[in-house]
Design brief:
Length: about 425
């Protein structure tokens, strides 16, 4: 009997240990794995010719992992890496990434594989960013081209339509789905308008969208603070449809829309988009609730581009806020450095778009050429780790602006809106509009 009890006790202990090990193992697997890449300068800024030291460390649940095979790539952002090597991370690795000898960004990407999954981290050293010059050239008739296009569109009545969305409205704000004509009869722009209910005149903000096809719900939060907001889509389709409508368009008729008619400056997809943003300001100015002396435009990524374009083309806008603008310095790749989204001239395209017609079209739509026209105060922001809208191209735009400007850098940020950027952009908009 005693022996049996001992066996039972041992069995119980064994299964208890097994259960504990399984639980701990599952916990360990669930703990976050991070690949940290940092630089020896706290602000990630360097003088040209100065070496950048990258520190690479892999952690799991806050504890360093050792003896891990890793792959490193170092070179100018978005370009073929100057160094590509496999190494063993015995512990924290400090690696000399070399230097840039001209203004730009030097990026280190570290990749590890753990239990069949790949993890990556990156850091990007900034070199003489104030000296980054655009490669984009402005056509001689650039301003005339856009002045004529807008004048032609304005011959078409706005024919604005507003439909109250009762379920979206609150006690202080009315929410409407709106539409108005754009550059051709029956070619309409759609959006969500949020208006404070209290009678009066209010500042107005146009929110222009990032890339993609999606529904919109409007910005009631700012409307509750006393700002009329209009959030638009740019594809000429209602913005309150079921998700499957947008998914179908994104995979079908509007797939790769930034490349539609890229070889024709008069028919390129973004012509109606740029004009539609201008007409959105016209629509806002037609509303009796809007104080037309306080108009602003805001957006990020594609929206950052559209914000700058709209501010350049519409003389009544007083303020612009743009984050990580797309469509910027598109020809950078043809000069040995990063170019802007949608990267039509990137090496990966193998020269497919390097034709005279495409190069001509690009020059009429490059945000750099609109930045040169900006005359109003602006707030701008991006991160050094952005892999979609390279910071080189953002600086090419920013350095082309001669109007009053503020720059808010969150160096570790990639292609997303960080909480700090969101907070600061709202603070700035409220400070100028209110």
């Amino acid at each position: 009997m005693l022996v049996i009890n001992c066996k039972m006790k041992k069995t119980t202990i064994f299964f208890s240990l097994l259960l504990c090990w399984t639980f701990c193992s599952a916990q360990l697997s669930a703990e976050a794995i991070s690949v940290s890449v940092t630089l020896d300068h706290a602000d990630w800024r360097y003088q040209t010719g100065q070496n950048a030291l990258f520190t690479i460390e892999v952690q799991r649940g806050g504890k360093s992992l050792k003896n891990l095979p890793a792959h490193l790539e170092i070179g100018p952002e978005k370009m073929q890496p100057a160094l590509s090597k496999d190494t063993l991370l015995k512990d924290r690795l400090i690696f000399n990434g070399g230097a840039l000898h001209q203004p730009g960004f030097l990026r280190c990407i570290a990749t590890v594989e753990i239990e069949g999954k790949k993890y990556r981290g990156l850091a990007t050293a900034a070199y003489a960013t104030d000296s980054i010059k655009p490669t984009a050239k402005q056509p001689k008739d650039f301003e005339t081209f856009w002045t004529d296009a807008i004048a032609s569109a304005r011959k078409i009545p706005l024919d604005a339509k507003l439909n109250l969305i009762k379920e979206g409205s609150g006690k202080d704000v009315n929410v409407y789905e709106v539409s108005f004509q754009n550059n051709r009869v029956n070619s309409r722009m759609y959006g969500i308008l949020c208006v404070p209910k209290k009678e009066g005149k209010y500042p107005a903000l146009l929110k222009v969208p990032g890339a993609g096809i999606r529904p919109y719900r409007g910005d009631t939060a700012l409307a509750e603070k006393g700002i009329v907001t209009l959030e638009i889509g740019v594809h000429g389709i209602p913005v309150t449809q079921p998700a499957e409508v947008y998914n179908s368009l994104a995979s079908g008729a509007l797939a790769d829309y930034p490349f539609i008619n890229l070889d024709n400056k008069d028919r390129y997809y973004y012509k109606r988009v740029y004009i539609g943003c201008v007409r959105a300001i016209d629509f806002l100015m037609s509303l009796p609730e809007v104080d037309t002396s306080k108009l602003a435009v805001y957006g990020g990524s594609q929206g950052g581009a559209l914000a700058i374009v709209t501010a350049a083309l519409h003389s009544r806008i007083q303020y612009v806020a743009a984050l990580y603008p797309a469509l910027s310095d598109l020809t950078g790749y043809l000069h040995g450095r990063a170019g802007g989204w949608p990267h039509m001239f990137a090496p990966a395209q193998k020269g497919a778009f390097e034709t005279t017609n495409v190069l001509t079209t690009a020059s009429y739509y490059d945000v750099v050429n609109f930045a040169r026209m900006i005359k109003i105060p602006g707030w701008y922001s991006w991160g050094f780790n952005d892999e979609i809208c390279p910071p080189t191209t953002a600086y090419a735009v920013y350095n082309s602006i001669t109007a009053p400007k503020e720059l808010f850098i969150t160096k570790e940020t990639g292609h997303w809106l960080s909480p700090m950027q969101d907070k600061e952009s709202i603070r700035w908009l409220l400070s100028v509009l209110k």
